[in-house]
Specification:
Elements lengths: L6 H27 L9 H22 L7 H22 L1
Helix pairs in contact: 1-3, 2-3
């Protein structure tokens, strides 16, 4: 049952939110499981995860499975999510 249909949210909300969710999960893992209470993700980690997700989701997976389609706008959403997380992380640490 579809109550509200917002096409742009349907198409791009997942790629926009995947990076902050992934980064927060990695941060929690370092802070609570490894006990590194002051841990924050440096830019090198953010860039590495961004590249990894972009290449896997938009190049490798569509090559393996023809039902998947690489979308350059998804990469833009990954970048916006990455920068958004970096800004929020910086505000939290100062």
């Amino acid at each position: 049952m579809k109550i509200v249909s917002i096409p742009i949210a349907h198409n791009y909300l997942d790629p926009l939110l995947i990076m902050p969710i992934l980064f927060q999960t990695v941060t929690w893992e370092h802070q609570y499981i490894r006990g590194e209470k002051d841990f924050y993700l440096p830019w090198s980690y953010l860039l590495g995860y961004f590249l990894l997700v972009s290449i896997l989701a938009e190049v490798v997976f569509p090559t393996i499975n023809r039902q998947l389609i690489g979308d350059p706008w998804d990469v833009v959403c990954y970048a916006v999510g990455t920068v958004g997380f970096a800004v929020m992380q910086k505000k939290r640490n100062f």
